[in-house]
Known about the structure:
Shape of chain A: globular
Largest sheet of chain A: 4 strands, parallel
Strand content of chain A: 5-15%
Oligomer: homotetramer
Number of strands of chain A: 6
Structural class of chain A: alpha/beta
Amino acid sequence: xxxxxxxxxxxxxxxxxxPRQAHRFVHFLLRSSPTLRRELAGAIAELAANVKQxxxxxxxxxxxxxxxxxxxxxxxxxSLLMIVANDSDIAAVESSGTFSGYYxxxxxxxxxxxxxxxxxxxxxxxxTVTKHAAGGLTEIIxxxxxxxxxxxxxxxxxxxxxxxxDKNNITITMLGRGLSTGSELEYADPDTIKNAYKNRG
Amino acid sequence: xxxxxxxxxxxxxxxxxxPRQAHRFVHFLLRSSPTLRRELAGAIAELAANVKQxxxxxxxxxxxxxxxxxxxxxxxxxSLLMIVANDSDIAAVESSGTFSGYYxxxxxxxxxxxxxxxxxxxxxxxxTVTKHAAGGLTEIIxxxxxxxxxxxxxxxxxxxxxxxxDKNNITITMLGRGLSTGSELEYADPDTIKNAYKNRG
Amino acid sequence: xxxxxxxxxxxxxxxxxxPRQAHRFVHFLLRSSPTLRRELAGAIAELAANVKQxxxxxxxxxxxxxxxxxxxxxxxxxSLLMIVANDSDIAAVESSGTFSGYYxxxxxxxxxxxxxxxxxxxxxxxxTVTKHAAGGLTEIIxxxxxxxxxxxxxxxxxxxxxxxxDKNNITITMLGRGLSTGSELEYADPDTIKNAYKNRG
Amino acid sequence: xxxxxxxxxxxxxxxxxxPRQAHRFVHFLLRSSPTLRRELAGAIAELAANVKQxxxxxxxxxxxxxxxxxxxxxxxxxSLLMIVANDSDIAAVESSGTFSGYYxxxxxxxxxxxxxxxxxxxxxxxxTVTKHAAGGLTEIIxxxxxxxxxxxxxxxxxxxxxxxxDKNNITITMLGRGLSTGSELEYADPDTIKNAYKNRG
Lengths: 201, 201, 201, 201
């Protein structure tokens, strides 16, 4: 395989990138300056060297310390821990300005279509929950996608955490379901209406 | 204006229909059987004769009685009244199988862009609420769109109903906000995250 | 079936209209003025009375005469006859300002998926071509869709007309194929590239 | 700027990639194996080393010789030269199986919105045309996008090549315009109808 095809093929492994766009990426790079290509190759090669995974929340970061900036921030609320699926969920929650506790990132959700055992970082989760329990944790919020995979993951994590939570008086909650911004009843699915009705107030 | 253009122009007043589709409607009718055209013209002409507005919930219907089938159904729960914007919202809520009380249809929501006074059927609403209060009403659910117009309408209706509700021990609630089915945190807007967090449980 | 459902069902027979939009049409009419409903019903009922089909080109029109305004326009070029699939194609060609001859409307194209014999108005076509031949016709342009149905229709009409055309020194042509406005080679299908290459000049 | 943000920013320079997708690329790489990252960085870094630009047609390639496989293929038709905007146009034309001559790649089209002088590789073009003229070239086909930029580029290239072409009895043609596959008259733009009519046959 030639160099253009080889790089094209690597780009098709990127999320959401098909053969045509992969090909356009390669031609973009061919027409770019050597400096850009060098910078890009360098940034990719050194990504692992510069980025570490926070041992507490499992988020990727490149701060100077082992723990990330959120986990080392002592001004956050130690009574709250939010469990999310992906790093990018943290950015979304932070930008809503609504939550001031700590996070834990599962890294994925359970797959309902494959039998492959998925790694939800459970032993790390247990360590992190234990650590936060010592710091005054009173509520764990499961903030997972409102879809079947998210629900299966929430069920599983809840069953994993319940014994410890019960012993330590920690409540396990889930993000509320209902009408999301912009929803109209006429176009809402029955499940959303059911949840919106149940969670009325 | 000729007959084709005249009918075309009338069809452009239909919701979501532009000149090109209006034109296709007319050509469809030209190629259709005289029977279809006669049936259609008849159904439109007699719509008002056959369809009445339920004096209680304001829904359009063509049952034999003045009141609609829902309002005359004595098996529904008299303690609950849901206020919706449009007739079609009733069908959506009914198909979710989650609500067994009665309805009232405002017919529209307040417009935020125009100064035009919108008719929310308030005097009818007062009569209907009074009637249901006599039947044991304890909760009014505002089931309006989760958008600024829906919120303004909810605020207005709440202020209209509060004095009567307070006097008669009727609670006024709203449909819950949060993640709708299929939502992922990463793509949710800050407002939805805020509501989902507030309504966690 | 009640009046609302009956009218809804009639609207679902309109091209491109599903149950939900049909329902919205009915509610739009319910909220409209009696005048609008009366006008609409009248316009539909009288469509057939006011609109006739031009005996020469087969277009629907409502001029005072039996023949349409185009066919009675003596300033058009009698040497050219364009055969199109639908009435709306005439409007498109006229708005391009490129053609000054006369038209004939087949009313449809051959269907490739059904065995149902389709009526391409062939006996009318023969009469119209004979009439124009007497007026100096030298070229018949097949202006049919650039898809398999259009091609099958063109082949069929060409075989129907060829004997007469040969005898009367009438050329039969087809609209040119190639890159349509806005096309880029990279995204063009092989057939379009083939035609664009063949028709280069 | 940290390593994640730096790589994200580099990815936003890729064609069609916004901040969110750039971020997803970085997280994809973080979760990928070190092998993939190493391969990718290597392929990008060595792209320029392995890929050369064919001195004759200007296409990027990584064959063993300076010239690309197409330009060194002596079985192609030396009487034809097609001028295209981009490397990917060659793949599209080749897959149509319709053209057997040689190519020249301008690399871009003239921009109508910016005053920036665009490099259409004109001195290379002159050399390549001279070379093919010695080999029996009789026709140059301008195969540029059917849009204003493509037309301006075609006009410019034609004026550049005409003196040489006239002297050497080389015809300059353009890809044909008309209905592209799938077009229906009703939805075609006036310009396409005009071209389809002009190029009828």
